[in-house]
Sequence to fold (205 residues):
Amino acid sequence: MQTPLLQVQKLVKRYQRGWPRRTTTFELQADFEVDAPTVIGVLGANGTGKTTLFELITGGNRPSEGCVHILGQDIHRVRYSERDRLALHYHQSYQLRRFRRTRPAFMLEAARTSQAAVHLFDEPQFNTQDGYIGFMLDFFRKLKADGRLVFLCLHPTERYHLDILAEVCERYLFVFRGAVSEAPDLATLAQDGRVREYLGNVLPQ
Fold:
C-alpha cells in the first residue's frame, strides 16, 4: 500500500498560561490525511489557528499531542536544517517562515527526501495586474504535477479571492475556533452556516 503524502494524526496544539494552575487559552485540533498530490484551499478568520496548523505541519511548532507524517516520516523528529526537504511554509509575501529550535540535532534523524513534498502558502498577496494571478495559479498546478501537495490559505475580502480558490483547489479545510473541518468543494463548504457568516458579502447569494 502506498504511503500517504501527508498524515495529520490526532494533532493538538494547546496554549496555556498561569501558574501553578494552568489555564488553556487556545487549542487547535486537526486530524486528516492526504493520499496524493493536490491543491487544498484553507479558509478561516484571523486568529482561528490557520498559521498554527501550517507551523505544525512544517515542524516549526511542536504539537501538544499527535504527530505529522510526510511521506511516512515524522517531521518533528527530523533535523531542523533538513525539515525544508519535507515541507515549506511561505508566509504572505512568499517569505519562508522560520522556526525555533528546541532539541539538539544529534537527537533527530535525517530527512529521507531531497525536495519539499508539501508547500504551504499562508495568505499570499495576489496582484491583479499583468497576469500575476495566472502565473501563480500555473505555479500551484506545476507543483501538483511534480508530485507536491499545495495548501493555499486565503482570507477572502473580494469575490475574486473565491474565484481563485474555486479555479485551483480540489478540496478545502475550514478552521473555526481551533477546529479543522473538511469539504470537497466550495459549494459544500458554504452549506456550513459558520462559513457563510465568515465570508459575509463575499459569498454569492
